[in-house]
Amino acid sequence: MQINSNRALWRTYLFVVGFSCLVAGAFLYLKWFEIKQTAVLQQTYANKLISKSIDNYLDKQASFLELLGERVLRQLTLNQHANVQSELDMLLASNSELAGFIILDDKGNPLVFSSNFSSPSQYARLNEFIKPATKSALSSQDKEAGLMIGRTFYLSEMDKWLIPIQFSITNELNESVADIILAINLDRLNQNWLGSSLPDYQKYLLLREDLYRQYGTFFQSDKYPQRYPEAFSVEHFYYLAELMTLQTGFSLEELKAGELVVTFSGVDAEDTPYLLTVNFNPKYRLFSVLGIPFEELYMEMMPAISWMLVFLAVFNAGLFWLFRRNIRTELSAKHALHYQVEHDPLTQLPNRRYLVSHFKEWSAEQGGEFSMLYMDLKNFKHCNDVHGHSMGDKILCIVSKRLAHFFDKCLCVRQGGDEFIVLSPVTNDDAIRLRCLEFLKDLEKTIVIENLNFSIYATVGIAIAPYDGATLDELLRKADMAMYEAKRKQQNVSLYSDDLETRTRQVSEIESELSHALKNNEFSVVYQPQVDAYSYQVLGIEALIRWNNPKIGFVPPDLFIPVAEANGLIHEIGHFVMETAMIDAQEIYQASGFSYKLRLSVNVSVSQLFNDDFVEHIESLLNRYQNQPITFMVEVTESLFIDDLLRAKNILLRAKQAGIYISLDDFGTGYSSLSVLSKLPINELKIDRSFVNDILTDEHDWLLAKSIINLCKSLSIPVVAEGVETKAQADRLAAHGCDIFQGYYFARPLPKAELIDFLKEKGGGRRDLI
Fold first, then answer.
1. 632-669: per-residue pLDDT in tens?
2. What DSSP element (H or E) covers 46?
3. With 236 labelled, which of 18, 79, 134, 701 sits at a CA distance of 20 to 30 A?
4. Which of 747, 681, 689, 687 lies closest to 711 in space, CA to CA?
């Protein structure tokens, strides 16, 4: 085991080493990306600067030649050729950058030369320079620029490399009357064209559109004869253009539009890798190319690589020492880890994993006889939601300490969330129940945290071994079942019994059959009349759902409604009841000869009421039957005020505004406060049948019933008494002011056809209560 553990650690070490190399590689990649991006930004800026400098220089020369041309033209018109030549010579003498002038007439014949171009050999060379072939190259440029640039050439008579520029002199009608050709000394252009000197490693090339080199910073003078007279390789040019498109997404045509400065990786004629930045001047048809060899960028990477190698060496040496040390201390760490695995990190109580691992051992120590307590905190979620999880954690810690202290000789486990499990050696039913009640009383003592007071309540389910089971899973299931039964009955403690198993199986069977009950038309609706307390005339009917399943027979609503609420089918069932009741109510009204609106009451569960489309669904239903003489009323129970009083009140207000009447059903079962009645939008209140049953024999129930009636009278809320079974009950309630009766004394719930017959017999008028 130890060997395998060591191997795992060494594998981890190798993984970390590999990961550190990966991280180092990622860092170096990011560093390289940063260096490259910096170079891109610098080259882009430098290229724009140089291009602008060249553009400004040429524009300046165009302006200069335009002014010179106007003055020369006037002098030539006066046949002052000597003065023109003298002025041209003075310009050459004052600016070493200028190499010579020649002025041509509109047919290309020489008119005037600067003195340094006056020899026959020079004239012949200049005549060759202005041949049509050369001029065609010049004319390929945009003439709107005014200034046109010729190819860089060598004039042997002057032993100089020159760049010719030609400017057309025009008259008032914008007609070309003469041309000025200016030869610029190539070796004097650095300052004017580059604006500032470039680093030695950075190369700049000004390339003509016809691929002849106009100017290059990196050409040595002895290489001029191989560079300037020969055009740039067409194949290499288009190879670079293809690289540019692949890397940047821009085509050569888009570059020539003149709005782009692109940077990409390429190679020179000697296949040296370069980072190239290119733009194009559409005015003078020139490519501006700035390049930096990747070798320079690699040199910038060297310090980062060196430091990273040192870091990796030191890091991995330290890592090796650390893993050696960890292997030596593994045993002690293993014990601590084992404790953490089997204990809750918040409360330090044993957790579910501990319970699974030690259950058999603990059971054997008790001889197989013990009790399991499954505890769930009632109001912890509310505290957690209102005050935050950190406060909830503190509450859980205090609850855990109280639990461990009270059950000090037991195994206390945090199951998870707000659920706890206790294994106790006590097996007597009464003793363990009493013990749990004592703990719950102790638990309810106020918890003070940061000047806030909390009272925590819990529900406990109990299963006793070996009577309820011997395995952990069986005891957990049955204790959990008992806990939920305690919640259902609103008790604090409940012991498991076989009846719970039967009920659970019954609920499971109901849930299975309920899923297709609507589809199979197994539901029906019956109606129980509601009568006036004084005239006994029928005022309305309450729609009650019935379910008769072919497999399990008749299922009471109090059994299948909770199941439908739990699995979400209650909404479909509720829609079925409302739709059926509305259709039946129309037929009942018409067949029974009513002369007044018929009250139709439908029970609504809490989950139905809180559904987002509850009010909209009923509004849609009422709109479809808006011309029918039906008063639609929904009956809600007091339990809805436990979940969310404000939300329930807002929904009821919306329902009332939509023309829906509200009846508060089963009042008096202990959930709501009498004081909230005045704030609720209800149209009537129904006294629960549990109080009506014993009003003749139980004075407490009668006093409660009277109190409810008196309160409703003071609030002008009609009162309905449910479960009226005898005339004596009806008389006593009517004498004290009850308004409406409902119960078997008047009629049991009836199918539609029987109800119609019943109503035909009753007939008569009624008093309007709503």
1. 999 988 766 655 677 888 888 898 888 899 998 877 66
2. helix 2-77
3. 134
4. 687
